């Protein structure tokens, strides 16, 4: 009725007013249409569902999608006070889903850490977080792959540099910008930049906890082996659950460590925080402590704050302890299943206790980042591309020979340990020479040790630990893995010799074309029947090759097998007489002398470590003794 009266009045008015009324009425109709459309669309089930569904719609014009991703919601409709639609997710709909190639990457501001951004990844109010720079890209991808294999997707990766952020985005990994603008290279443990990275962790925690979410914070140099969330949910009363450097078990099942018996530091490489008031106050104080003094290591600061008040127990059953302000409830995750580099790689504590490990953190190792990577590869827990398993030139493998007496007879002491190690390093030295000669990558065999290695004096193994003697020890216990993988000048150290972990040929990721291309070589005594380097395909496909062969013999025989992916020698003892060219021999020696490290450490001596020597057998009367003076304290180069 009102509309009709208005129209009648307009028709009786002058033409100018008719025009004005018409424009106003049309404007009202159009505005009403847009307002009601916006309200309707914001309340539809589709808009309330997972925010990243919009990125999977393929019927939209791609240029239109690019445009909307680069404009915030407030920029689109700054004057309309209606419920805002759910903000579009900056990531694809699922982890590992690669964004369309014709789609521009959203602007950096869209990756800023906000409650809304974190909310998109939360499940059951928990988010798992790690962070790093581009140098740790392969560790981060491994971390992500392990979680997705466990069907866990409620995680986020913080990028400390734009290069990593962009790389992860284009791989379909949920990533956010930490705004650190750090170097993209490996900063090295203990450096000022390393300590700066530690401070970023505390700042990150202090930022996320006020959002009201639980945070499972992890370092990138660890991997998940089992979904940890059900375990953490078993301890709902804990404000913080932390891993530790404990090497002596206080429990033999999967319950929390007995806090009164824990002597190892609380390790912040794996810890779970609930957004309680005490936890938020702790995070804030910890952050303020570190920002006030750049010399404090983040982990030491965390331990110092918690130990200002430690005890009493919360109750008789939970395993939790009051700490910090007397209200915060702390639980210490069992080191047998939330493993350190010692309880997993050395003690294999979880195996002995018949438990299933949840995680392994590559602590207690001696080869820097390369050592961490190699340990995970030995355990077949690292994500490598297919080409890693199929290097140019092929692979060389051999079966090590170790007499039973070297492993099991007599006491486990320094003398018997070095006798065992020297016997193995001599074989590896020969294999490295053959690999260099044939331009192949050496699969380094498993290494047996009789004594553990540590940074401080000990009686051979750590007292109270579950280390068995002898034990399969990580390569970095004896060899400088970081040096073996380092690019060294060829004019001084000869050609590069690639290495691979002992488990590689058993890894399920080994490509079929490598598995099928295999040559077994049986060493034989020269002059015996068939021992002439000829290949008899009718006798089990084994090539008989004479011992004490020189460079010419190796090149003559194996040049016919350049296309074979894997050559496996039955032994390398007495296999190779040495390089013909003295200059090449000297450069090879110069290289491999640097491949071995130290054993540490003898008690009650001024200098407790002992250097391994790759050419121990060429020094009559060589003994495993520590340097007798500071002047002697250097590698045997």
From TrEMBL:
- Enumerate the InterPro entries for this protein: Glycosyltransferase_77, Nucl-diP-sugar_transferase
Every Nucleotide-diphospho-sugar transferase domain range: 152-376
Any transmembrane segments, and where?
Answer: 16-40
Q: Which UniProt keywords apply?
A: Membrane, Transferase, Transmembrane, Transmembrane helix
Tell me the domain of life.
Answer: Eukaryota
Gene Ontology biological process terms, A to Z:
cell wall pectin biosynthetic process
One MF term in GO for this entry? arabinosyltransferase activity
Please identify the protein, giving its name as recorded: Nucleotide-diphospho-sugar transferase family protein
């Amino acid at each position: 009725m009102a509309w009709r009266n208005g129209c009648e009045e307009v028709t009786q008015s002058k033409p100018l007013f008719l025009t004005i009324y018409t424009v106003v009425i049309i404007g009202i109709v159009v505005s009403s249409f847009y307002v009601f459309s916006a309200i309707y669309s914001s309340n539809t089930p589709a808009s309330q569902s997972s925010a990243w569904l919009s990125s999977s719609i393929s019927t939209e014009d791609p240029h239109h999608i690019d445009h909307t991703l680069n404009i915030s919601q407030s920029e689109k409709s700054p004057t309309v006070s209606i419920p805002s639609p759910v903000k579009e997710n900056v990531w694809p709909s699922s982890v590992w889903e690669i964004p369309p190639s014709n789609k521009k990457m959203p602007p950096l501001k869209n990756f800023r850490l906000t409650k809304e951004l974190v909310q998109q990844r939360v499940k059951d109010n928990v988010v798992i977080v790690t962070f790093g720079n581009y140098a740790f890209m392969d560790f981060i991808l491994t971390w992500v792959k392990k979680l997705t294999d466990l069907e866990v997707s409620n995680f986020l990766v913080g990028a400390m540099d734009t290069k990593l952020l962009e790389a992860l985005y284009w791989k379909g990994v949920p990533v956010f910008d930490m705004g650190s603008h750090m170097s993209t290279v490996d900063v090295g443990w203990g450096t000022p930049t390393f300590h700066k990275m530690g401070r970023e962790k505390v700042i990150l925690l202090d930022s996320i906890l006020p959002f009201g979410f639980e945070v499972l914070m992890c370092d990138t140099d660890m991997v998940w082996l089992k979904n940890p969330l059900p375990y953490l949910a078993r301890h709902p009363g804990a404000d913080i659950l932390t891993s530790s450097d404990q090497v002596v078990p206080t429990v033999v099942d999967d319950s929390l460590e007995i806090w009164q018996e824990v002597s190892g530091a609380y390790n912040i490489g794996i810890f779970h925080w609930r957004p309680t008031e005490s936890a938020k106050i702790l995070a804030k104080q910890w952050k303020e402590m570190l920002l006030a003094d750049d010399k404090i290591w983040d982990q030491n600061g965390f331990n110092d704050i918690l130990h200002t008040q430690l005890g009493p127990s919360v109750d008789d059953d939970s395993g939790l302890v009051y700490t910090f302000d007397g209200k915060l409830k702390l639980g210490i995750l069992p080191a047998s299943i939330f493993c350190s580099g010692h309880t997993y790689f050395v003690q294999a504590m979880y195996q002995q206790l018949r438990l299933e490990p949840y995680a392994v953190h590559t602590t207690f190792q001696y080869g820097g980042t390369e050592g961490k990577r190699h340990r995970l590869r030995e355990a077949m827990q690292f994500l490598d591309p297919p080409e890693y398993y199929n290097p140019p030139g092929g692979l060389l493998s051999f079966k090590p020979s170790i007499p039973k007496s070297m492993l099991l007879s007599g006491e486990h002491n320094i003398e018997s340990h070095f006798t065992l190690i020297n016997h193995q390093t001599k074989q590896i030295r020969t294999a490295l020479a053959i690999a260099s000669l044939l331009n192949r990558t050496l699969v380094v065999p498993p290494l047996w040790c009789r004594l553990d290695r540590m940074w401080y004096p000990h009686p051979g193994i750590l007292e109270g630990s579950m280390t068995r003697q002898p034990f399969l020890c990580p390569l970095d216990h004896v060899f400088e893995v970081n040096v073996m993988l380092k690019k060294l000048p060829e004019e001084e150290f000869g050609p590069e010799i690639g290495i691979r972990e002992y488990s590689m040929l058993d890894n399920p990721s080994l490509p079929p074309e490598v598995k099928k291309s295999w040559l077994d070589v049986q060493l034989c005594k020269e002059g015996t029947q068939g021992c002439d380097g000829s290949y008899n395909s009718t006798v089990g496909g084994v090539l008989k090759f004479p011992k004490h062969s020189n460079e010419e013999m190796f090149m003559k025989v194996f040049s016919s097998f350049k296309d074979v992916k894997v050559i496996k020698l039955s032994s390398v003892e007495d296999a190779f007489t040495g390089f013909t060219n003295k200059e090449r021999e000297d450069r090879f020696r110069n290289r491999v002398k640097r491949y071995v490290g130290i054993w540490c450490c003898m008690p009650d001596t001024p200098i407790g470590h002992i250097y391994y020597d790759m050419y121990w057998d060429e020094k009559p009367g060589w003994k495993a003794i520590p340097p007798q003076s500071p002047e002697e304290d250097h590698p045997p180069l």
